[in-house]
Design a protein that fits this description.
The structure is a single chain. This protein has 267 residues and is α/β, with parallel strands linked by helices. It folds into two domains: 133 residues, Periplasmic binding protein-like II (D-Maltodextrin-Binding Protein, domain 2), CATH 3.40.190.10; 117 residues, Periplasmic binding protein-like II (D-Maltodextrin-Binding Protein, domain 2). 39% of the residues lie in helices and 20% in strands. The chain contains ten helices and 13 strands. The protein has a six-stranded mixed beta sheet with strand order 2-1-3-12-4-13. The radius of gyration is 18 Å and the shape is globular. This is PhnD/SsuA/transferrin family substrate-binding protein. Pfam families: Phosphonate-bd.
Length: 267
């Protein structure tokens, strides 16, 4: 039996339960047996498994490793900034009580980051901030702290005053707002990066093409399933679509541009 894992968007127990509801529908409609997996280890460890059937993978490591994992589908968020595409942004998040109300007001502050293999928590903000530095003639932030490892770790850094601003995957942030509004009312977005291709559901490289195709068809039909409607809404998702692999090239190209320019952590 293959495993299905929503580790990247398991914001809390309610979110995980919602994802597992979708996995049950996907398994039923695809004819591919899936066992929901609660993974507490690193994402790198998760992605090395050889029994992945429907598991979220960040776009940067996916494209950086040559798209070895077969793509199943990617979500189209309800967020208007996605423009109806399987795209997301990194929200620059501050605590709601902070005097920082815009990116300009964050000048001289401390930004946190998650891990280097994260598109939303590292690669996207460092490229965006590199462009801002070119326009301003100097870095926006005075200091950068990390790795903070996970989106939750980034939010905890805000709570503890370790960082003034952190980049958070916009879908993760929205799922948090929908499933735990009291906690997420403590935070607000002061800006965001340009939209880029979403994390996607993948399978392990050894999984038969027939199963990958069946899973993709079932995932992309979720928005037509009445049983999935409320769950998709709770997760901030309009629908899922098949992946255009070449659309992810911009992620690799922007990371390479940062590397060539000597840009390190977001600042």
């Amino acid at each position: 039996m293959l495993v299905a894992c929503s580790r990247m968007y398991d914001v809390n127990a309610a979110a995980q339960e919602a994802w597992w509801t979708l996995f049950s529908i996907i398994a039923d409609k695809s004819g591919v047996e899936l066992r929901p997996l609660s993974h507490n280890g690193s994402l790198e460890e998760l992605w090395r498994r050889n029994d992945l059937g429907c598991t979220f993978m960040c776009g940067f490591p996916w494209v950086a490793t040559g798209r070895q994992h077969p793509a199943i589908a990617a979500p189209v968020p309800l967020d208007a900034r996605s423009e109806g595409r399987p795209h997301y942004v990194s929200d620059y998040v501050a605590v709601d009580a902070s005097p920082i109300g815009s990116m300009a007001q964050a000048s001289g502050c401390t930004i946190g980051w998650s891990v280097q293999h994260s598109q939303s928590g590292y690669q996207a903000p460092r490229h965006h901030l590199m462009d801002l530095e070119r326009d301003r003639g100097r870095p926006l932030f005075a200091r950068s702290v990390g790795p903070l490892h996970t989106p939750n770790g980034c939010l905890e850094a805000l709570d503890q005053g370790v960082a003034d601003v952190v980049p958070i995957d916009s879908l993760y942030f929205r799922v948090g707002q929908l499933t735990d509004p009291d906690r997420f009312a403590r935070y607000r977005s002061i800006g965001h990066t340009p939209p880029r291709p979403m994390p996607l559901f993948v399978a392990s490289p050894n999984i038969p093409t027939s199963k990958v195709r069946a899973l993709g068809q079932a995932v992309c039909a979720l928005h037509n399933e009445k049983a999935a409607a409320d769950t998709l809404a709770l997760l901030g998702i309009k629908r899922f679509v098949l992946v255009d692999p070449e659309s992810y090239d911009i992620i690799r190209e922007e990371a390479a541009e940062c590397d060539a320019s000597g840009v390190g952590a977001p600042i």
